[in-house]
Amino acid sequence: MAGSTLLQLIEVVIAAAILLVGVLRHSASVSILGGGLLIGIAITGLLQPEGGTVYRRALVGYTIAGVFVLGGFVLYHFAA
Question: For the whole model, what pTM was predicted?
């Protein structure tokens, strides 16, 4: 197994654990954060066939995830 693959699997486990903790503690903000991290990891993986460096793919993926998290926090603030 390549080192980058192992790193991605560790990232997924950590993000899923954050999401699970948020769900079990009924904490919307922690759940949104965990979901955002999983979205960032997924987008980074989806962009792999497009090429480019891993830094560029991660920047794009986690930027989109950051927008999701910020939007989720805003929606939660006004819904609560």
Answer: 0.87
